[in-house]
Amino acid sequence: MLNLETAQSPHKLRRVAIEPVTRVEGHGKVTILLDAENRIHQVRLHIVEFRGFEVFIQGRPYWEVPVAVQRLCGICPVSHLIAATKAMDLIAGFGPLTPSAEKLRRLLHYGQIVQSHALHFFHLSSPDLLLGFESEVAKRNIIGVAAAFPDLARQGVFTRKFGQEVIAHIAGKRIHGTGVIPGGVNKPLSVADRDSMRAGINQIVDWSKAAVGLVIQLHETNPDFYKTFGESRANMMGLVDRRGALDFYHGGLRARDADGGPIFDQVDYATYKSVLQEDVKNWSYMKFPHIKALGADKGWYRVGPLARVQICDVMPTPLAEAERRTFLNVGGGKPLHGALMYHWARMIEMLHAAEMARELLDDPDIVGTDLMADKGPRREEGVGVIEAPRGTLFHHYRADENDLVTYCNLIVSTTNNNQAMNESIRAVASRYLSGHELTEGLLNHIEVAIRAYDPCLSCATHALGQMPLEVDLVDADGALVSRARKG
Amino acid sequence: MRLVVFGWGNDARGDDGLGPLLLERVARAAWPDVTTVEDFQLQIEHALDLDGAEAALFVDAGRDTPAPFSFIEIRPERGESHTTHALAPEAVLDVYARSLRRPPPPAFTLSMRGESFELGEGLSAEARERLESAWAFIQGLMAERSVEDWRRAANACAPTAR
């Protein structure tokens, strides 16, 4: 395949910009360079919004971090809260969490995953999937599928509401919650609140299972299309527990290559810099991490649902694991790399998170009152990693003897997927756009591929002062009119 | 009139905190039959917060909107916001109509113009003044709390916004 990251002679090409990319968080821009015959020469996903969080947090007391990070992103504040607090557990000197505290944090996390995945599927992606995005034949079939699910939007709203209730019960409030603190949680779950969630969880499990069924039906309308759209063979990374089972809250890092072969396994995430390297490129605010041992060209990887369900050995809940087996069979023993397969994997994960929440709500420890770990000496450094809804999320901090944060490095899920997203849109451009007159429907193919990753672009760009941005203004003849550079 | 007031924004991003700050004053005033809802962004589940309300008020910071503030009545609208994990107030009304299968309550937006939205900044001087103007305006709204009065206020407000 042609390398479409950088065109050989960009000044001779016509530039098409899709700006902003709709239905993703933050502000993304895709630029495509075409020649006179509409052949594609360059495709890039740029990040045009800028966050300076890593600098913003420096100089603040470390105990403020779990609250401050919730302002990092309006979409996944709970993910940042949990990852940052895991890092601060270490810096504050706490030992292992009590069973009740860990289970409450896990329940909070599963609630967040359910609501995030529900929003993406029921409201952000279903217009693409249910209404089709070009093919009339596919559209007719898909409308038939959609007719069988008239309550989809309603289920999405109530599933989100359930997730918000879980968050409010455990974090204390829908936003700015203070329930999760270094060393544990600061408030037990009342029996009444537990019972309230218990009353609703079976419905959420049922809707999640039905959502997996809907994705399968959609896939069956055009299996080859779903399997290959936006396909980019990528390494895959995520957390697994000691048995190799998927664990959203804690585990070791595992990476597999595009054929499913091992790259590394059970790597202590505190040593993430020994296996990962972050690069920058002069055309995007978002960093480009890769697996250090493989180098930048071959070491980029994919995270999130499509990676997680394929690198783990098992999902430790029965309904989700059965669905995962069905999913894996589509690949016939080889990993799947099509962008639209994310949707299927995401719904399997929603089902898994709902099942895990149900198990926890039945566990007597969830209403336990022993909530704080034993405290030892303060440490200088801490790394907290979780599997957030969009993928692996790293929070890394150092604090000085005055308890002030001196260093912060975040690798958010969308950043981990940066190169993979770029490769997916290049695959789509090569297959569907190249050589054709560009129409809105064709350009929407690009956006469909990006949305499949559910990127959160606003919290993916946070390296103040390190990332120059160059803006080229090109006229209709391809001539450079002006160039601005920042940073 | 049972009223639900939504205020959203990020108080760590300069004037984006205008909505939550005004909402905080509404909550402190503790007017009867007034519920307040704060969030970083509006989302589909906020449609359920409208249930049981006889009117809704959305307060937010605006970029390039009329200064000091605009006050208008809004109706359900399905349109997509370009950042779409977040919804516009009109889209929340639309989600209500589609999910609960009945018309949403009358709804209004009060949008205070912000000037700077950088991470780590406090309110700009202009935003502080606009917050006071909006607060005085809301106190007037609460004194005449009926949908018809609010519609008259919206009609009167539009031409005078500067």
What would you say about this model in short?
The complex is a heterodimer of chains A (487) and B (162). Chain A is an alpha+beta fold and 487 residues long.
Summarize the structure in words.
The complex is a heterodimer of chains A (487) and B (162). By secondary structure, chain A is of the alpha+beta class. Chain A has 16 helices and 16 strands. In chain A, a hairpin with a 5-residue loop joins strand 15 (469-474) and strand 16 (480-486). Chain A is globular. Mean pLDDT of chain A is 85; it is low at 460-476 and 481-487. Chain B is an alpha/beta fold and 162 residues long. Chain B has a single domain, classed as 3-Layer(aba) Sandwich (Rossmann fold), CATH 3.40.50. In chain B, helix 1 links the parallel strand 1 and strand 2. In chain B, helix 1 packs parallel to helix 4 (125-143). The N and C termini of chain B lie far apart (30 Å). At the A-B interface, helix 4 and helix 6 of A face helix 3 of B.
In terms of structural class, how would the helical and strand content of chain B be classed?
alpha/beta
Shape of chain A: globular
Cα separation of the termini of chain A: 33 Å
Q: Roughly what fraction of the amino acids of chain B lie in strands?
A: 15-25%
Q: What gap, in angstroms, lies between the N and C termini of chain B?
A: 30 Å
Largest sheet of chain B: 5 strands, mixed
Query: Largest sheet of chain A, if any?
Result: 4 strands, mixed
Q: What structural class do you assign from the helix and strand content of chain A?
A: alpha+beta
Strand ordering within the main sheet of chain B = 2-1-3-5-4
The structural domain count of chain B equals: 1
